[in-house]
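Could someone model cytidine-5'-triphosphate with this protein?
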Amino acid sequence: MRIVLGVGGGIAAYKVASLLRLFTEAGHDVTVIPTEAATRFVGVATWEALSGNPVTNSVFDDVHLVNHVRLGHEADLMVVAPATADLLARAATGQANDLLTNTLLMASGPVLFAPAMHTEMWQHPATQANVETLRSRGATVLEPASGRLTGSDSGPGRLPEPEAIFEAAMALARGLQESVPGHGATEAPLFPLTGRTVTISAGGTREPLDPVRFLGNRSSGKQGVALAAAARDAGATVRLVAAHMEVPAPAGVELVEVETALQLREAVLTAAADSDVVIMAAAVADFRPADVSGTKIKKRDDAADPVITLIRNPDILHELVAVRDAGGNSQLVVGFAAETGDAHGDVLGYAEEKLKRKGCDLLVVNHVGSDKVFGQDHNSVVILSRTGSEPQSASGSKQDVAAVVIDRISAELSKVFPRT
Ligand code: CTP
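Reply:
Sure, complex below.
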């Protein structure tokens, strides 16, 4: 099969060398057309050596061969990877300002775009409109993968793995368009939380005893941070109220840092006032020292050892539900429960009782123990709903779990508070 492989000017161009190898090793004849910008990342010599064919990006080379017409007509399949925001825009608007875009206009076979760019660029309405246009004309635009991007940011925008692009390309060539996601319109909304504001509390509160000591807990904040990133990637405006965390807050969210349960309460209630969703993922101390010493507590041989008296902290989750039910913003309130189970009951039994007591819409239940959940990268949860629908399980990395929880929240939100 004859394949034209267009390469856009993004850092992911280096991965396309592996894609090219997959094509040639499968016996296909590949002509690479890099854009001018692509050759700044991977040079013409690499493409020529790997493809065994001459490579140019200019319509003015070998003019007598009328390359764009020949390549476009002869190609059984065109694959563009990485399809940058610029390349998608030029293809969608039918521009013909280099050999690749000229050839795209001449293509008579299936065309597959594999996008790669920063999340914001991918989610920008301009890019999404271009993707829509290309799909409506019959091109296949793959969804980018999610994960680490060029800098320290992460989210949707990674080039799909070369093997995934290869499989999609082969399916298209076999006429199996319907089996390739990204061909034509997609049924599920890409950004189900667009226009929604989500407040998430994360981390563990610290309750001071004196200027140097505190009562704390083992929460790392990883699950809350993963939820904030997942909500952001689903299009939401995200406010992260962070108590002590061992991981940095994700980019693109509004961060409010707090220390104690009382500060967290204040910040969450303020942020919740105009939020569509509040997720209480923070490990909030149920008690705080009754007296906080203004100076360091010293040990003294001439006095008894100190006794710490604790007093109850307010239950923030319960209060959020009460404020909402008393006429506050229409919103979905989601709690987390860390349970161990004991001689008197099991994890799910305690969780169901907690869901009733707290009155929240969804309760995400963790089974915790000395080696479970806290600080770990993996999690296993059960999502319970106030409406009594079947418990939903999710496990995997904290990012995987976050994606399931955010999907569930999006679905509940559109049921309970549909967009007007
Ligand atoms: N929570 C809260 N305010 C508190 C304590 C907990 O808002 N003072 C929230 C947590 O953020 C979580 C949920 O309540 O979303 C359940 O927390 P958990 O510690 O499991 O429950 P507790 O109410 O503390 O109940 P218990 O310790 O008796 O199991």
